[in-house]
Design goal:
Rossmann fold, about 15% strand, alpha/beta, seven-stranded parallel beta sheet
């Protein structure tokens, strides 16, 4: 098959990462894959295989994408068009109709739109609801990355929940990931701490790093722990100020965006996710894949990944004291690291990419 993956760009983000994983695996399985981007930009561009074509529509605003995308889809004649992230999903569906409905089109959502829309977007909730209700029935299929996202989308778009397919994100690789040596721990984290606490996320409101830093400040000093926050974002200066106010400059670091954080996972003693809401939570799977114990807020997808606490500790969203307690308790118990690694394989790239392909094949052309 020829698959066109339509995204705004390839900036650092969970949706972008998972589509890169899918594309690479589909290439291995003999399919032809291309990225169709509004703008050819983003941190992940350098990771795209030479076997994957990248098309830039050179469109800077979403509202201007409909006709350029329609013209490209008509020329491309892809068997499958996969589009992620509303409102691009809705606009792409209109483009697909204008292109002559060539091939099949699938849309996927990765966040709780009712929450992220009200918190992060200028779009009115009414516009969100009506645009989804008008456009999503056009799609060959609709995908949600977790049961929570499916429930939210079903309510917003007045879509029968049975018509939304839940396919978890493809994150875990086939290669086993084992802890690093003490020398590597010291090289990555420095030799002045005993417990290494890691989080990986864009520095934005959704991830609630303020609460994480405050919770970290409540840990007993004799734990001698260090917190590393990997990621870039608009809240960096604010978080640095907070770290200074809490006298944590020597114990909390923000190294910025890292293309390959594997060395950080392999040398971490605990992974923490403090999000206010989370469609899935790719970074939790990445931590489990390396056998790293996890503490997370009950922010949506993480609860499903950790199976209601069977594979990690869960705390209420925004509860600073509960998060601090859970982190401290995690250092006082033995963890079955192989159990965590095995859980990660439920979200392996190969397994999940096959689920996508099977779903594509299930639907007949319009």
């Amino acid at each position: 098959m020829k698959v066109s993956i339509v995204l705004p760009n390839l900036n650092f983000g969970g949706a972008e990462r998972l589509h890169l994983n899918l594309a690479e695996d589909w290439i291995k399985k003999g399919h032809q894959v291309e990225f169709v981007l509004m703008q050819k930009e983003g941190e992940y561009l350098s990771l795209v295989s030479p076997k994957i074509n990248i098309v830039s529509l050179k469109v800077s605003r979403l509202r201007n994408i409909i006709l350029p995308l329609a013209r490209y889809l008509r020329k491309s004649s892809s068997d499958i068009v996969l589009v992620a992230m509303w409102p691009l999903t809705s606009y792409a569906l209109i483009s697909w109709v204008l292109s002559g409905r060539i091939g099949k089109i699938f849309v996927s959502d990765h966040v709780h739109l009712s929450v992220s829309n009200s918190e992060e977007s200028y779009f009115l909730n009414l516009f969100l609801k009506y645009l989804i209700r008008f456009t999503y029935p056009i799609a060959s299929g609709v995908i949600a990355v977790s049961r929570g996202v499916r429930k939210d989308l079903s309510s917003l778009g007045n879509i029968n929940v049975k018509k939304i397919k839940v396919i978890y994100n493809p994150i875990a690789k086939e290669d086993p990931c084992f802890p690093a040596s003490q020398d590597e721990r010291i090289k990555v984290w420095g030799g002045n701490c005993f417990y290494n606490i890691l989080t990986v996320a864009e520095l934005k409101k959704e991830k609630d790093h303020e609460m994480l830093i405050e919770a970290f400040s409540l840990l007993p000093s004799n734990l001698n722990a260090k917190l590393i926050i990997l990621g870039a974002g608009q809240l960096r200066d604010h978080l640095i100020s907070l770290i200074g106010e809490l006298n944590l400059t020597e114990r909390v670091e923000l190294p910025g965006f890292v293309h390959d954080p594997s060395q950080w996972y392999r040398t971490a003693d605990l992974f923490v996710l403090s999000s206010r809401w989370e469609g899935f939570g790719n970074v939790i799977v990445e931590a489990l894949e390396c056998g790293v114990p996890v503490v997370s807020t009950m922010s949506g997808g993480p609860t499903e990944i950790l199976n209601d606490g069977a594979y990690g500790k869960l705390v209420p969203v925004g509860d600073c004291n509960a998060l601090a307690t859970a982190m401290e308790e995690s250092f006082g118990v033995l963890h079955d690291h192989d159990l965590l690694r095995n859980r990660a394989q439920d979200f392996s790239i190969s397994r999940i990419s096959t689920k996508y392909l099977n779903y594509f094949k299930k639907y007949k052309l319009h």
